[in-house]
Design brief:
Number of strands of chain B: 0
Distance between the termini of chain B: 53 Å
Strand content of chain A: under 5%
Oligomer: heterodimer
Structural class of chain B: mainly alpha
Helix content of chain A: over 70%
Helix content of chain B: 55-70%
Largest sheet of chain A: 2 strands, antiparallel
Radius of gyration of chain B: 19 Å
Strand content of chain B: under 5%
Number of helices of chain A: 33
Largest interface: A-B, 98 and 84 residues
Distance between the termini of chain A: 63 Å
Shape of chain B: elongated
């Protein structure tokens, strides 16, 4: 156990303590206690960061299940550090914000903070784990805690629906990811990511390597809300706003991005990786930004914008992975620029999206609504909120002087570079990116101007709006300040975080020690990127102005709704179909179930006898048969067959006893005196019991209800009889070794008994006899209970 | 002899199965009884029949029949008797409580 391990586990340790604090220290808002944890963690992890020096990777391992190669290994490099700082930093701000957002008296704060800490620990574990299975464990914990947090207001139907949906989608993705991890283990014999990277070609030569890649990508895409799995994110907006800000914009949805970045050294050299991630990312980018424009709920708008921005980051990671492809080894460092843009935008997005979500929460808190159509003209009432929202939204739109501008420019140069360096029709990539950016601009304008400018309609609001309390504003203020600081001083993180992170994602591209240094500057001169940004601003403004005119186009494009519908219909259909299948064979009739059993007996036992050519008929050992033995046998068969056709209850009872007595006669013939004796007695008692029971029946009908001859039952019966006969005959001709009977012939010397059968029963194998007595006893008690407890039961009713 | 007994046991198995697949409770219990008779016969037949004297050392015979299957069957007879008796009383109680011996009517309520 090192300090790093303890740092990951601290949030988990706090989970059981939080309800205690909530219960016994009710005067103080629980959030104040909780806030200590992320702040301490932030300070702890910030010590690993220095502006000049990139971090030397830190590795600590604690064995967990060593026999299965599962070690709790922590690997802290710049990529992890970047995520850790985001998780703890934004975590601290979100907890601080939630102190003012969540009411002390009305909300179940102990649950809120317990779930939140569970999530924070799980997220820290995910990004710091080197062992794939440990990573998976933490990954699923993030899904579980996210599920709990989305359904925090569990009395609302929409919350439960959203939680269930996100659970289904992220869990199924997580499960396929586990499959992919296991394949990687089979291919390499290790769960450690570092060792997998070191094995390189050995892993990629495995025949299931590409399926493993897709299975893992499925996990990453579902978690990061990529197309077509993005449908859970808008429904997750039913969570409290601090949760939306933290989980569903800054951290959890980036877990998939982290996984893709982390595993790029393993998979990045393959075409499939590049294509899948780039195309999925671009589609997500376009669909997210197109859908965001039409939303009237502010949180839904931000949800779609998150989807689209993460699509952007994903596509950049896809383009960046080309650097590892051997075909482009000459220009590999050019593609590294795309990875740099991805990482930089990831940081920016977490910051401005967290800020925007907090601002939406404030709006909701102060006006009572998040509906764009009811809001407007709040600039005079809430000037601080307006400024902060403006900063966040302009950064999202990619305008100077905010950090989003820098990463957007880098995004454009990344996609332009792809189209220049690869096939000519790749020009489609920058075009898609550009169109998506125009719509991004439009929804950012909607976010600002529809809410804060325009007619002020106090009558349409539930509350009288006023500026938020200062405590609520501090967190978004810090984030907004960061947005501006990062624009003016991007190189604070360039060489210490971004550059080593890129080198961690693309280690093979830097293997031959080429010089490559990150220097981000706001001004590149007049180039295509700048023209593209100008185009976005001009076209975006025009689109925003005439938005109402082309709004109807959206009615023709029901893509989001059709996907949601497919999900809903799919769920209902699965339930219905499985219900139908179950109702088809679970009829509740026991003859039907018995016939399944018998058919399986015939098919499996009879079938294997037939397929293996196992049947042997060996008549050489047969003992001779006397005439009276034939007669006995035929009488027995006649009695049995008569049973099938008789309608009289009495006659069938008598026929069964005829069979029983003939069996005991056969025992006599077969030199088994004890058997004959027992059989005789038992048969007599059974017959008496049969008669006794049915004599005392209430409505004595001497005839059983006429039963139709059923051909299917007859076929099954004949099949069973035939199968068992064939097995019996085969066994007779197939004595593998001699009987152990010779041993028992010494029973007199061994046990002092002259009757071998009895010696076996009470001496050699007396244990059977004891338990058989127990069976008889149990049956007796059962019968007694059945008869006697009847009246007692009636009385109680 | 062994083949003959095996075929008879097979016929008993057929009849027993047919009765077990019935809807009538009494017939099902009778079918189970026949099934156990057939099993006992088959167990004996598989080991060879009439291969010597009864397994009593007082007979002073040159060879005896195999005592092991006999001991097995003896145990089995008692157990199947216990089962039959219990089933009978259960069937009887079912009659008394529910007034039917038809398995089709014994399917419980649809909302269960």
């Amino acid at each position: 156990m090192t300090l790093l391990h303890i740092a990951i586990l601290i949030p988990f340790f706090s989970v059981p303590l939080i309800p205690l604090l909530y219960k016994y220290v009710h005067r103080i808002h629980t959030g104040w206690f909780v806030m200590v944890i992320p702040v301490l963690l932030l300070i702890f992890f910030a010590r690993y960061y220095s502006v000049q020096q990139p971090l030397e990777p830190v590795i600590h391992s604690v064995p967990w299940i060593p026999s299965l190669n599962i070690h709790f290994t922590i690997y802290l490099d710049s990529l992890s550090l970047l995520f850790v700082l985001l998780i703890t930093g934004i975590g601290a701000l979100v907890v601080f914000y939630s102190i003012f957002y969540m009411s002390k008296n009305r909300e179940k704060l102990h649950l809120f903070y317990a779930y939140l800490m569970l999530f924070m620990g799980a997220m820290l574990g995910s990004v710091l784990s080197d062992n794939l299975l440990v990573l998976y464990a933490f990954w699923e914990l993030t899904s579980v805690s996210s599920f709990l947090l989305i359904a925090f207001w569990y009395h609302r139907k929409r919350s439960r629906y959203g939680a269930q949906k996100s659970m289904f989608i992220t869990m199924s993705g997580g499960f396929s990811m586990l499959l992919g991890f296991i394949i990687l283990y089979v291919a390499s014999g290790t769960f450690s990511i570092r060792e997998l990277i070191a094995f390189g070609d050995l892993v990629s030569q495995h025949s299931l390597f590409i399926p493993a890649m897709f299975l893992i990508l499925l996990g990453a895409f579902t978690k990061s809300a990529q197309f077509p799995f993005h449908i859970w994110l808008p429904d997750a907006m039913e969570a409290p706003t601090p949760i939306s800000a933290y989980l569903h914009s800054a951290t959890m949805v980036k877990a998939g991005v982290y996984l893709v970045a982390r595993l790029t050294p393993i998979f990045g050299g393959h075409q499939e990786w590049f294509w899948t991630i780039t195309i999925t990312g671009l589609i997500t980018l376009l669909i997210g930004s197109l859908s965001a424009v039409r939303q009237s709920d502010l949180k839904a708008l931000l949800a779609f914008s998150t989807i689209s921005q993460i699509g952007l980051i994903m596509s950049l990671l896809g383009i960046g992975s080309v650097a590892l492809n051997s075909q482009y080894s000459g220009s590999s460092l050019l593609f590294a620029g795309a990875t740099l843009a991805a990482i930089f935008h990831l940081i920016n997005h977490s910051i401005f999206k967290g800020c925007l979500f907090m601002m939406i929460g404030i709006l909701d808190h102060e006006t009572g609504t998040r509906d764009i159509r009811r809001l407007g003209g709040l600039i005079h009432v809430m000037p601080v909120s307006f400024t902060l929202t403006l900063i966040g939204a302009f950064s999202m739109a990619g305008l100077p002087p905010f950090s989003g501008f820098l990463s957007k420019e880098m995004f454009f140069s990344g996609v332009l570079m792809t189209s220049r360096n690869m096939d000519s029709w790749f020009i489609i990539i920058p075009i898609i990116a550009w169109v998506a950016s125009i719509f991004t601009f439009v929804y950012c304008m909607i976010l600002i101007f529809k809410v804060f400018i325009g007619p002020y309609q106090p009558k349409r609001l539930d509350r009288k709006p006023h500026e938020a309390p200062i405590g609520m504003l501090i967190s978004p203020m810090i984030l907004a300040a960061l947005v501006v600081i990062l624009f003016f001083f991007p190189n604070w993180i360039a060489s210490s975080l971004l550059e080593p992170a890129v080198k961690a994602i693309l280690p093979q591209a830097f293997a031959n020690g080429e010089e490559w240094h990150v220097h981000i500057s706001a001004w590149h001169g007049f180039n295509t990127e700048l023209l593209m940004t100008l185009g976005i601003v001009i076209l975006g403004t025009l689109l925003y102005k005439y938005f109402n005119k082309f709004r109807n186009i959206y009615e023709i494009m029901p893509l989001r709704f059709s996907l949601n519908q497919a999900y809903d219909i799919g769920l209902v259909a699965m339930e219905r179909i499985s219900g139908k299948i179950t109702r088809f064979y679970m009829t509740g009739s026991s003859p039907r179930y018995l016939s399944y059993l018998f058919v399986f007996l015939i098919v499996i036992v009879g079938g294997s006898l037939f397929l293996q050519d196992a049947f042997i008929l060996d008549l050489s050992n047969n003992a001779p048969i006397e005439l009276y033995e034939y007669m006995l046998g035929f009488t027995m068969v006649a009695a049995a067959i008569y049973m099938v056709f008789t309608k009289s209850r009495l006659i069938s009872i008598i026929a069964v006893s005829v069979i029983g007595y003939i069996v005991s006669l056969f025992f006599v013939i077969f030199r088994a005196p004890d058997l004959a004796l027992t059989q005789l007695v038992v048969e007599t008692i059974s017959t008496a019991l049969f008669l006794l029971c049915f004599y005392f029946l209430p409505k004595v009908s001497r005839y059983v209800t006429p039963v139709k001859f059923r051909i299917s039952n007859a076929i099954i019966a004949i099949g069973v009889g035939l199968t068992l006969t064939l097995i019996g005959l085969t066994t007779q001709g197939h004595h593998l070794f001699d009987s152990i009977a010779e041993y028992y012939k010494d029973s007199y010397t061994l046990a002092g008994a002259k009757n071998m059968v009895n010696a076996i029963l009470v001496d050699f194998r007396a244990f059977d006899t004891m338990l058989e007595i127990v069976v008889l006893f149990a049956a007796g008690v059962g019968i007694y209970t059945l008869i006697n407890l009847r009246h007692a039961g009636r009385k109680n009713q | 002899m062994e083949t003959f007994i095996t075929i008879i046991a097979g016929i008993l198995f057929t009849v027993g199965t047919y009765l077990i697949l019935n809807k009538n409770l009494l017939r099902i219990i009778l079918g189970i009884t026949i099934f156990s008779h057939a099993t006992h016969l088959m167990l004996l037949a598989i080991n060879g029949l009439k291969k010597g004297a009864a397994p009593l050392l007082g007979e002073n015979a040159a060879s005896y029949t195999d005592p092991v299957p006999q001991a097995l069957i003896l145990t089995s007879i008692v157990i199947s008797f216990a089962l039959t008796a219990f089933l009978l009383v259960l069937g009887y109680r079912t009659y008394v409580e529910l007034g039917t011996d038809n398995m089709k009517h014994l399917r419980g309520n649809s909302h269960e």
